[in-house]
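It is worth pausing here to work through a concrete case rather than discussing structure prediction in the abstract. The textbook approach is simple: state the sequence, then state the predicted structure, then interpret. We follow exactly that order.
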Amino acid sequence: MIITGMFFDKEIKRSVLAELLLLPHPVKPNVFSEDETKKPNKNLVSDKKKFDDFQRANDMGFFLHSESALFDISFSDDGKSSVFIEFLDGSFADLFCSRFHRFAQLGIDFGFISEDAEYEHRNRHFFTQGDNEIETWVGRNLNKYVPGYVLANLCF
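Step two, the predicted structure:
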C-alpha cells in the first residue's frame, strides 16, 4: 500500500480540501465520515450543504473515502494540520503523484509519498517505560522532526 502525507497551516485548509475534490476518479473522495472504517453511502461529498454542515461539526478533522483511497484529515490550531492518504492499490497513487505539485503551489509545508511499510520503518518509534510499550511517530509534529526520506518528498 502507498501512503501520502501533507502538512499545512490550518488557514489553507479550504484550498487543500478543494484540491482533493479535484482529484480524478477513482481517487477523488466521494463519501465523508467520522470513522475510518465506516463508509456511509448517504454522506456524499457532492451534497454540498450536508458536507459543509458536517465540516463545521467536525472542525478537528474527519475522513473522506473514495473507491481507491482513504483520506484522514486533521486540523490543528497550535500545530500543523495534515492529510494522510492510504491508497488501496498502488497504481492509483500514480494518479495522485501527477498532481502532487499542485498541493505545493497551495503552500503546504511538507509532503511525502511512501510505501506504508517503509514509512513505518523510518518513522515509527517504540520504547518501554516500566511495564508499558509506548508507540510514537517521528514527523507528526513538524516543529520537532520531519518524516524520513521516502519515495518522494516536497519540502518548502
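Step three, interpretation. The two ends are 26 Å apart (CA to CA). The CA atoms of residues 13 and 24 lie 20 Å apart.
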